[in-house]
Write a structure and sequence with these properties.
heterodimer, A: 116 residues, seven-stranded mixed β-sheet, globular, B: mainly beta, five-stranded antiparallel β-sheet, 61% strand
């Protein structure tokens, strides 16, 4: 069974441009999480989608946005790129989390965005 | 708000035992997870504790004390391949999954 896939693997943009990152969850998973991981740092929560709806977002400006499609794949858009947006963007998927489930997230390999 | 604290770095030798602590502050706590991430790789799930006590999975064990808002990951019989970053993550009542800054473990021969 295919894991979480992300594209593109690498993306180079200049300041002020827009970037679009894509994520396909594991088949059967309805929840998609997006995280930003700057070099050597932890995972900063960006967005969570479930069943096509945005359920929560982290402490990021509105120029970070996204959506989830009917097939549960997801897209992250970053507008008006800034140098500090350079990071690894990780997507993770999970089953809809029941109260007593483990809440295991399955991560993709990430999309590395470089802003010049 | 939410916060998770874990040491930034830990060093140990092959064959030793190491404990990585995590303290958290959150509302509506459901459980504490641990993830491993090798350089250049994706984080992978190691364990999950929803109830107090110790969960053992092979060489790795994870502990939770809900009353102390504290947990730890215990790695036994360390191997070189265990060199990686380890993240604790809190699942809250909104099913948010928030991660700590990570602990970089270096295993030396």
């Amino acid at each position: 069974e295919a894991g979480v896939t992300q594209s593109p693997t690498h993306l180079i943009k200049t300041r002020g441009q827009q970037a679009t990152l894509r994520c396909s969850p594991i088949s059967g998973h309805t929840s998609v999480y997006w995280y930003q991981q700057a070099l050597g740092l932890g995972l900063q929560f960006l967005l969570w989608y479930d069943e096509g709806e945005e359920r929560n977002r982290g402490n990021f400006p509105p120029r970070f946005s996204g959506r989830q499609f009917p097939n549960y794949s997801s897209e992250l858009n970053v507008n008006a790129l800034e140098l500090e947006d350079s990071a690894l963007y990780l997507c993770a998927s999970s089953l809809r989390l029941a109260r007593m489930s483990t809440g295991e997230l399955f991560f993709g390999e990430g999309s590395r965005l470089t802003v010049l | 708000g939410q916060s998770l604290e874990q040491p930034s770095e830990v060093t140990a030798v092959e064959g030793a035992i190491v404990q990585i602590n995590c303290t958290y502050q959150t509302s509506g706590f459901y459980g504490l997870s641990w993830y491993q991430q090798h350089d250049g790789g994706a984080p992978t799930f190691l364990s999950y504790n929803a109830l107090d006590g110790l969960e053992e999975t092979g060489r790795f064990s994870s502990f939770l004390s809900r009353s102390d808002s504290y947990g730890y990951l215990l790695l036994q019989e360390l191997q070189m391949k265990d060199s990686a970053s380890y993240f604790c993550a809190v699942r809250d009542q909104n099913n948010d999954m928030r991660f700590g800054a990570g602990t970089r473990l270096t295993v030396k021969p």
